[in-house]
Amino acid sequence: MTPVDALTLHDDEHGEDSYKVRLLLAFLQVPHRRPPMDVYPGEAHRSAAFLALNPLGACPVIVGEGFILRDAHAILQYLAAEHDPAGLWSPRAPPLAMARVAMWLGFAAELTIAVSAARRHDMLLERGIDVAVARIQAHRLLRVLDEHLWFAEQEERAWLCPQEHPTIADIACFAPAVLCEEGDISRLTYPAIRRWLDRFKRLPDFTAMAGVFGA
Amino acid sequence: MAAPEGRALRGAGVRALAADRWFTVMRSEELVPRHVAQTALLGQEIALWRDDGGGVNAFENRCPHRGVRLSIGQNTGLELRCRYHGWRFARGDGRCTHIPADPSRPPPAVLRATVYQAAVQQGFIWVALSPLDRPPPSWGAGAPWLTLRSTPVDAGVERVRAVLEAAAQAIAHDAYTFTSEVEQARLTLMLQPMCEAGTVIHAALTPPPLLADRLAVLRQYAARLARLRDAAEAP
């Protein structure tokens, strides 16, 4: 078992990527430390101390016994492999099951970039963001996600990948999809996404964040 | 819709045209228990929810207290609970049943959510913004049909109509209902005008395909409707 202080999460309370990691830590009940980090307005992610952990200056980062790991999706893969021996959250076989999760992680990365830009524009008044382009891109992706989830329902599947259990791909897509309206990206025309968000929120050990409500 | 500017749907203009008729707003099986769906009709946002008795409720998507969207609220089975201050509105008449900040007395009877008429007919949920004394229409004399995936389009209803008539050789039965003969089957298309720049195409196929072909047929028509959508959205 991991001692309580073995894993440290450095995260941004409001960021989509950080939320993904907090979700999986809660689902897997992994003990960890989470020192307060003042990303906004304190810009703690640009401090010398944080840049020593991640020269990209981006959250989240986890620090464990003898390693530092950045990139939300890499951290999800690590946590699932280390703390979910049954491979429910991140299947290790068959090859196609692995590849499908990787495919949706790639999709989630694109969705996160678009949603994050729109949210930072609207909520943090960050300058230099082409918010119209970000919203168009988010809608292009959400339309694909909604159709995929609609057909999943028709096949009596609840999640992005064919497994009965949700995977880290659901976590990675959930965070930007549930937060997108804070960037004025409406889910009005995505009813299947809205139902999937409800199913996800009802998972045991689901954890919320500011702006995310229970189902 | 992908109308980024402003939260309000502009549609007062379209609304005057057709407030006194039934519109399809969703496939009935998609309104799952303990969920609150969000839709819009003629510029009016609607929170749709199914109560535990199976009844379908269509409330104006606005809490009468502080105006928060009820579609982010909670479906408790008998009531819709607003996310903001926990006011609860009963299924059926939308009457406010509980105000957490004032639990000592029942809420005044005048407090209620605005309720629209809703009905289930031929696998679809229908909503009318004005009270009507007739049931929703029954197309194809109520013959069994397969409800297809509804297709949202970022275009106004006139544009969608024009594309249906030109590209799909669809026959208009009224301003919002079209049929098209396809491979020994009849495709019925019903338009839901959401707002000035948004329409949903609801669709059903008569007769329904064999069960074994169902998924393939659903995919085939989803692709076909996506092409119509793309044509309607093209500049």
Account of the protein in words:
The complex is a heterodimer of chains A (215) and B (235). With 215 residues, chain A is mainly alpha-helical. Chain A folds into 2 domains: 80 residues, Glutaredoxin; 107 residues, Glutathione S-transferase Yfyf (Class Pi), Chain A, domain 2 (Up-down Bundle). In chain A, 49% of the residues lie in helices and 5% in strands. In chain A, a hairpin with a 2-residue loop joins strand 2 and strand 3. With 235 residues, chain B is an alpha+beta fold. Chain B folds into 2 domains: 117 residues, Rieske [2Fe-2S] iron-sulphur domain (Rieske Iron-sulfur Protein); 88 residues, 2-Layer Sandwich (Alpha-D-Glucose-1,6-Bisphosphate, Chain A, domain 4). Chain B contains 3 helices and 16 strands. A 6-stranded antiparallel β-sheet of chain B has the order 1-10-9-4-3-2, with no helix packed on it. In chain B, strands 11, 12, 13, 14, 15 and 16 form a 6-stranded antiparallel β-sheet that branches. In chain B, strand 6 and strand 7 form a beta hairpin. The radius of gyration of chain B is 19 Å and the shape is elongated. The N terminus of chain B is likely disordered. Classes of the chains: A mainly alpha (215), B alpha+beta (235). At the A-B interface, helix 5 and helix 7 of A face strand 2 and helix 3 of B.
